[in-house]
Specification:
single chain; 7 helices; globular
């Protein structure tokens, strides 16, 4: 099985419980005061829904789907819109990997490497739109 398939299955296991997305935002917001402040007036239920779909888009692009939705995400997050700082994507990735480790019962260090490989092109595309 290739890394994109491993990550697709891992994400499926993680998505079984809404706590995965709650825990992600707890980790992500704890990583930076600036990030925590960005979410101060956010509808977190809606934000968790967006996260669920955004991560899936990154995985689907890694599996060969068109990247139009990720390009749109990059546009919405660039300096002229949400102004998401490029360095925050590393914190986002680490929060996601920490949450996967907590929620995927089949997590291994090799799976972490697979996740990093699968996430990189999508994160680079979104960050590159800044």
């Amino acid at each position: 099985m290739n890394n994109t398939d491993l990550v697709f299955q891992s994400y499926g296991r993680c998505c079984r419980k809404e706590e995965f997305f709650v825990d992600f935002y707890d980790f992500f917001m704890a990583s930076s005061d600036a990030i925590r402040k960005r979410f101060a007036d956010t509808d977190m239920s809606a934000q968790r829904h967006l996260l669920r779909h955004g991560v899936m888009q990154i995985i689907l692009v890694a599996r060969g789907m068109p990247d139009r939705k990720l390009r749109d995400l990059g546009e919405s997050h660039n300096r002229n819109n949400y102004d998401i700082q490029p360095e925050w994507y590393g914190l986002w990735e680490e929060a996601l990997l920490k949450t996967v480790r907590m929620h995927d019962p089949e997590y291994t260090p090799a799976l972490r490497i697979a996740w990093k490989e699968v996430l990189k092109p999508g994160i680079d595309l979104i960050r590159g739109a800044y």
